[in-house]
Design goal:
The termini are far apart. The chain has 391 residues and is of the alpha/beta class. It has 2 domains: 31-52 and 293-389, Aspartate Aminotransferase, domain 1; 58-290, Aspartate Aminotransferase, domain 2 (3-Layer(aba) Sandwich), CATH 3.40.640. It is built from 15 helices and 15 strands.
Length: 391
């Protein structure tokens, strides 16, 4: 019986390969950082979400080691049975204060957080209005809900207003958007979204995974960056990017929303608690973010430098202020060949092509870290120039 299934799967894999969308995994044999070792060779890493350079921070590692001695390795339980430690409560309280919300609930990942909220909060008489370029976890979470589904064009406020008008019969409405769209580095226009939400009596949810830790005056993300923290009802996010880079996610929101998630969110109720070592490391990461203006300024400086040097050399970049910097190529094959050339020059970067991004908008997504030096950035730019000269 499985012979037939195996042949079908082999055919599907061949179709993926033919489409040029096969995903390969580099075997990194070092700690995560601006410099990594891949299959025994040194590389400059320009494709990690390690925005503040905290993934291998000595202070975080020290906190994790202490936690292993004091709180153990794992809890072998979900939160409501015997899986809640004092560390979990401390981290939830700290995130609540940091994000200026009322309450926070931890999840094993942000994918789980987004996968758990919509089914609980939105019923068949409700409506969810989602940006068309929202993260896959939001899309999948919405699919689990019986709510009516509306979609608006990316960052298009006229289209969002149309969807709000078309959904006015719903009991409860939720606008959901990424704070930063990870393939483009574009920021959601949160002030305009909040204005429309207030005009049409809707709630606003922001997945701020690619902003918390380094955007805004204190690093509290895009709501702080735009000055709308008191106008956002729900923030989802991850502990796996700027906040140490390990794993774990959260919903930080109005108290009643978090209370009902604790009672009904399936990924929370049926998944083991976030490991105490990860929680302890995240607590330390938040301390570093609180005193991390120098890191945030270095990150901004590095991103500006990379953009300036690449544009001066005639490369096409998507405009923006985020450390995600897409270098654009009209041809899918050009992006792939550039990535191969960069690899040969010791630069670890990944090409994205259709269907991951729209046809004709292939790119290499460069991600800048506060850990990169000016020399690192200049070497990356020089590698782009050298690859171009060889074409």
């Amino acid at each position: 019986m499985f012979t037939d299934i195996r042949n079908q799967l082999i055919t599907e894999l061949a179709e993926i390969a033919k489409a040029g969308t096969t995903k390969t995994e580099s075997e990194i044999t070092s700690a995560q950082g601006s410099h990594v070792t891949i299959e025994g060779k040194p590389f400059l890493n320009f494709c990690a979400n390690n925005y503040l350079g905290l993934s291998n921070n000595p202070g975080i590692i020290a906190a994790v080691k202490i936690s292993l001695d004091e709180h153990g390795y794992g809890l072998s339980s979900v939160r409501f049975i015997c899986g809640t430690q004092d560390l979990h409560l401390k981290l939830e309280a700290k995130l609540t204060e940091f994000l200026h919300q009322e309450e926070t609930i931890l999840f094993p990942s942000c994918f789980d957080a987004n996968g758990g909220i919509f089914e609980v909060l939105m019923k068949d008489q409700d409506a969810i209005i989602s940006d068309e370029l929202n993260h896959a976890s939001i899309i999948d979470g919405i699919r689990l809900s019986k709510a009516q589904r509306f979609r608006y064009k990316n960052r298009d406020m006229a289209d969002l207003e149309k969807q709000l008008i078309d959904s006015q019969s719903a009991r409860r409405r939720l606008i959901v958007t990424d704070g930063v769209f990870s393939m483009d580095g574009y920021l959601a226009p949160l002030p305009a979204i909040c204005d429309l939400a207030e005009k049409y009596n809707a709630m606003v949810m922001v997945d701020d995974s690619h902003a918390v830790g380094f955007m805004g005056a204190t690093g509290a993300g895009t709501p702080e960056h735009f000055g709308v923290q008191d106008r956002i009802e729900i923030i989802s996010g991850t502990l796996g990017k700027a906040l140490g880079g390990a794993s774990g996610g959260y919903i930080s929101a109005r108290k009643e929303i978090v209370d009902i998630l604790r009672q009904k969110a399936r990924p929370y109720l049926f998944s083991n608690s976030v490991p105490p070592a990860v929680v302890s490391g995240s607590l330390k990461a938040l301390d570093l973010v609180k005193s991390g203006e120098n890191l945030r300024e270095t990150l901004r400086t590095n991103a500006k430098l990379f953009r300036h040097l690449m544009e001066s050399e005639g490369f096409t970049l998507l405009p923006g202020e985020h450390p995600i910097v897409p270098v654009m190529f009209g041809s899918e094959s050009d992006a792939v060949e550039y990535a191969k050339g960069l690899h040969s020059e010791g630069i670890h970067a990944v090409a994205f092509s259709y269907p991951v991004v729209p046809l004709g908008k292939a790119r290499i997504r460069i991600q800048i870290s506060a850990e990169h030096t000016e020399q690192d950035i200049m070497k990356c730019v020089a590698a782009f120039i050298k690859v171009r000269s060889c074409k």
